Amino acid sequence: MTEAPPPEAPVEAAAPARGFWARFWDSDVFWSYRHNPVAVVSSLVALTLILAAVFAPWIAPHDPFNPATLQLMDGFTPPGEAAMSGTVYRFGTDDQGRDLLSTILYGSRVSLFVGFAATLFSMTLGVSLGLFAGYRGGLADTIIMRVADVQLSFPAILIALLIFGVAQGVIPPNKQESMAIWVLILAIGLANWAQFARTVRGAAMVERQKDYVSAARIMGVPGPAIAFKHVLPNVLGPVLVIATISLALAIIEEATLSYLGVGVPPTQPSLGTLIRIGQRFLFSGEWWILFFPALMLILLALSVNLLGDWLRDALNPKLRQ
Amino acid sequence: MKIQRFAGLAALLASTLMASSAMAETLRWARASDALTLDPHSQNQGVTHNFAHHIYETLVDRAVDGSLTPRLATEWYVKEDDPNVWVFKLRHDVKFHDGADFTAEDVVFSLDRARSENSNMRQLHSAIASVAAVDDHTVEVTMTGPSPLYPNNLTNTFVMDKGWSEAHSLQSVQDYAAGEDNYAVRNANGTGPYILESREVDVRSVLKRNEAHWAETKPQVTEIIYLPIAENATRIAALLSGEVDLVQDVPVQDIERLKNTAGLKVETGPENRIIYFGYRMDDKPLKSSNVADKNPIADPRVREAMHLAIDREAIKRVVMRGNSLPAGVAMPPFVHGWTPELDAFPAPDPERAKALLAEAGYPDGFSVTLDTPNNRYVNDEAISQAVVGMLGRIGIKVTLASRPVAQHSPLITGDNTDFYLLGWGVPTFDSAYIFNDLIHSRNGHFGAYNPSGYADPALDAKIEGLATEIDVEKRDADIAEIWAQVQRDRVLLPIHNQLLAYAMKDNLTLAVHPENQPLMTMVTYGQ
């Protein structure tokens, strides 16, 4: 970090010419990232897992979502041993003869997709409602925030289960399987919007009093435009933190729902479904069916969570050295 | 000195242990679920009856081989001059737990109660015209027509005390579906070998041996503590840690581990229950298929192809870990009408299956949704998953829809499924029970579990005739003919018969009961 300015040019003149990456490298946030080994390691782990999941069809040795390719007789093969068909499975196989390594890669795709989509959904919903409530105030604020309060007094998983149950009743039985993943996203998203709404509303109420908002209003900028164009960018910091943490939460919630057997169909298992299946074989000695999916889930949730923790500290002005 | 004292202590300890084991045997019995109610006519359900059999008794009982044996009735016969009347001679010197005498009036009351409006046992007694007491120990049941098999329907119909029931206003049966409650739901007064001492629903029930019971040999178990533990792993852990003595519902994957654990043993045996797949086979298009203008399964070649795609031995070996009897007919070997020839099944032949599909006009297969329960039968969801793979290999793309049995059953009874897994137990040990509900086209009392759309009036008439046919040979011939047609038309796709496993401490023995209704009176102690 010892800046060595070129001998001819004065330092002041050189500063604006520096590239985006150089400025990024020197930014407060990235400086804190570079000096935080936990953040570096967890981001590397998260990135690796996410990339592995995204490129699963090219990396995975088998396609576990195509039931026609499964060899039932290869079921329960321990890791690294040759199965009935002669194939060696690095992480072993489950009770259906599925290669666990491939199944985990494909399964974390499902988990991550549901996690990202649900977080995006709850973020969009929560930020819009929070912004509206905070900027508008009055009756709208009261109604939205009381709903959020009531919802926060229930565990998120209970609300997700409730939404899932209602959806099961509304959707005709022969459509349920193809809709399952979207219902899951809806359920988890609706269960988590309140955190976003609360934070954004608080920040928006503070911003509303500021001069730039008054200035915009005097210039005749319409309310929604002020809220989204001017107030929103100033409240995005905390939203980013909550989004990261709630991504980890959404992944865990998806796993919990699938573990309870209400999530995605068993022929397209997510990590939670795999753990539910593996848990049956704990006493019978087939430890790998539970161990590898659980390890994957822990690594994924932990790394995203630690990243969120670091981001919260990095964006908190009071904690800056 | 020290050694002497220790020896003395050990001897004292040993003598107390021996004395206690000779005097009282407490059996802690764990199952996956509790009896739904103690009102004996409110729920026709296996777990509920299993528990009730310890407190209440029936007129006739069923032996392990399926034959009827005397219980509260000592003999029964069709009245000589009237083929519509069954006569039951009752056991003498039987008392209810509260001391009241057991008489013919109690039987009349109980049979009338069992066929009253809210009773769940009603369909078993629908042929009764009237019940009358001839004397204190003789009852005559008048039927609406000849009913040669009627005593088979009595093995789960319990006898209550008329006086006790009237004192507690129990004339009408608890309406379980409506959430009704009555005195008999948590209290009981039967003639059975055990007396209800305390009951905490879904937690713990305690039964004490009935010292005044009529049977000559007293059961060795003097006290039963009944513990419902829903979670599989928790139930097995309770046995491993010595918290319970007997686990009735053992998951197949844990059998090997328990067998190899010192101090425990596992008894296995076949259950009187067939696991099979059914499908819609009429001409209406399937609801869940990509073939929208017709029903591919209506073509017999497609059904044949599905049968040839299934590898039953692989399911037995991997999914069931050897704990099943693969089957070629949808009928357990216990059932009257079963033959080894019917039960034979072809070796899987995916190539021939593909050729048949192509011949039927589906060279690329078709898609369909398979509905499966995931908490009812042994590894039900895993069986369905395996079948999805096997059908996938011949080109039939199956989507699996997995639900708890409470949501799965209505799909079948409500005609809302194209392809489904179901298990069928046969409490009467007779083919007619299978035909009535699974093969007969759906109308009135018949075809409650037949969403196949299969309808053949001649076959229906033949099935209905079985109930009143007195000529045994003619009846057997009819049963064989019906099965031949069912097998020819591939109405059902049978997979296997379940094996049951009970795990217990190795100082006690309890044999597997084919209907999964073991009585703790059968438990014996000693290696």
Report on this model:
The complex is a heterodimer of chains A (321) and B (527). Chain A has helices at 11-14, 20-26, 28-34, 37-54, 56-59, 100-136, 138-152, 156-170, 176-208, 211-218, 223-259, 271-279, 288-315. By secondary structure, chain A is mainly alpha-helical. Chain A has one domain (46-64, 95-316): Orthogonal Bundle (MetI-like fold), CATH 1.10.3720.10. The two termini of chain A are 17 Å apart. Chain B is of the alpha+beta class and 527 residues long. Chain B folds into two domains: 5-17 and 33-185, Dipeptide-binding Protein, Domain 1 (Dipeptide-binding Protein, domain 1, Alpha-Beta Complex); 271-499, Dipeptide-binding Protein, domain 3, CATH 3.10.105. Chain B contains 15 helices and 19 strands. In chain B, strands 1, 8, 9, 10, 11, 12, 13, 16 and 17 form a nine-stranded mixed beta sheet that branches. In chain B, strands 4-5-7-6 form a four-stranded antiparallel beta sheet, covered by helices on one side. Chain B is globular. The A-B interface holds A 66-68, 70, 72-73, 75-76, 95-97, 168, 173-174, 176-178, 261, 265-267, 279-286 and B 232-233, 236-237, 240, 251, 253-254, 256-257, 287-288, 311, 314-315, 317-319, 369, 371, 374, 381-382, 385-386, 388-390, 392-393, 398-402, 404, 407, 411, 416-418.
